[in-house]
Structures are given as C-alpha cells and as structure tokens.
Amino acid sequence: MREETKIWLNYATENFKSAKVLLESHLYNPCLQNIQQAIEKYLKLIFIENSIKLKRTHKIFELISTLKGLDIFIEINEDEIDLIDSIYLPSKYPVGGALPDFMPDENICKKCIEIAKRVKKDVNNYLKSKRY
Predict the structure, then answer these.
(1) Which of 32, 41, 70, 116 is paired with 84 by a 20 to 30 Å CA distance?
(2) Model's pTM, two decimal places?
(3) Domains of the chain, start order
C-alpha cells in the first residue's frame, strides 16, 4: 500500500471512530459530519492507491460513479448515496435551504454508521486484493 494511501486510511478511520464516540455522546450533527467524511475519505483513498487524479468533490455519487467506471464496486445503494450526500452541507453549516428531509437523531446516525461500516469493509477488502 502506498504511504499516501495509509495516511488517507488513518484519517478515514479517525473520522469513523469519532462518529461512534459522538453518537454515544448524543452529538448527532457532528456524528453525521464524521460519517460523511469517513465515507468520502475511504472512497478517495482508492483513487490515491491507483494514482487516479482526485476530483474536488464531496459528492459520494460522483466518487462511486467514477469507481464503477473503473470496475471497482462498493456496497452502497442509490438511496444510501443520496442520504450521505444530503448530510454534507447541513452537518457543517446551519443553511436553511440545504437541510435534509430529517433532523439528526440516534436512528439516522446508526443507519449512516452501518453504511460506513460496509464501505469501510469493501475498501479494506479492495486494498487486501491489491497486495502483491
């Protein structure tokens, strides 16, 4: 694994672990922010590992679409992608027009953590398959 990939993996893992701690502390908004960031970083580290130029985007849809075009498949469906993409701005800023169709709560955080777990697992499996 490339050294830069390891750095991205460490950052993604920190975001994922932070999300769990924040959920336990009932801090749902930052929990969602860290989940989104973890998923984004897990996906982007595949780009890093394969020396693919990163797009400046926070949209999971764009990242997943690009990976699919490279025959790299991550277990996340369209509804889950829409959910994760819908939390990026509202989890960072109190922007009235950008709020998703839900208020952050324990259930939505648990759902998003489960999505992140699957993404993490698929990315780790991908990295293991790349070992020589």
Answers:
(1) 70
(2) 0.89
(3) 3-129 (1.20.120.330)
